[in-house]
């Protein structure tokens, strides 16, 4: 292969790589748009979960623990600091409701 043929081949490869990079950029923009749409759809369906985070304090070691609504519904969580089981009870303790 002559030097000019090698130069032409390298130029063709460079041109193709440039095309692929441009196509990849377009695809990345499309993926970002899809992700934004999916996040909006999930928020519409499931609501905004950021408001559903609660801080509780372990009664054993006083470590602060962030729990979400799912953990509260489950009724308990084990403290990551001391492994104590923290139970969540909901309801009214008044005599009228007992």
Report the span from N to C terminus. 94 Å
Find the structural class using helix and strand composition.
alpha+beta
Biggest sheet, in brief? 2 strands, antiparallel
Shape: elongated
Helix content: 40-55%
Order of helices and strands: HEEHEE
The rounded Rg comes to 29 Å
What does the model show?
By secondary structure, this protein is of the alpha+beta class. 51% of the residues lie in helices and 16% in strands. The chain has 2 helices and 4 strands; from the N terminus they run H-E-E-H-E-E. The strands form 2 sheets. The protein has a two-stranded antiparallel sheet. It has a two-stranded antiparallel sheet with strand order 3-4. The radius of gyration is 29 Å and the shape is elongated. The mean pLDDT is 87.
Record keyword descriptors for this entry.
98 residues; alpha+beta; two-stranded antiparallel sheet; 4 strands; 16% strand
SSE layout and pairing:
Elements lengths: L2 H44 L6 E5 L6 E5 H6 L1 E3 L6 E3 L11
Briefly summarize what is shown:
The chain is of the alpha+beta class. The chain has helices spanning 3-46, 69-74, and strands at residues 53-57, 64-68, 76-78, 85-87.
């Amino acid at each position: 292969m002559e030097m000019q043929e090698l130069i032409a081949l390298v130029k063709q490869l460079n041109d193709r790589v440039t095309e692929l990079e441009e196509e990849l950029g377009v695809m990345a923009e499309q993926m970002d748009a899809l992700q934004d749409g999916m996040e909006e759809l999930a928020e519409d369906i499931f609501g905004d979960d950021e408001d559903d985070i609660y801080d509780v304090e372990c009664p054993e070691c006083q470590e602060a623990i962030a729990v979400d609504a799912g953990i509260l519904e489950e009724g308990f969580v084990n403290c990551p600091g001391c492994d104590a089981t923290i139970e969540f009870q909901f309801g009214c303790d008044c005599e009228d409701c007992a």
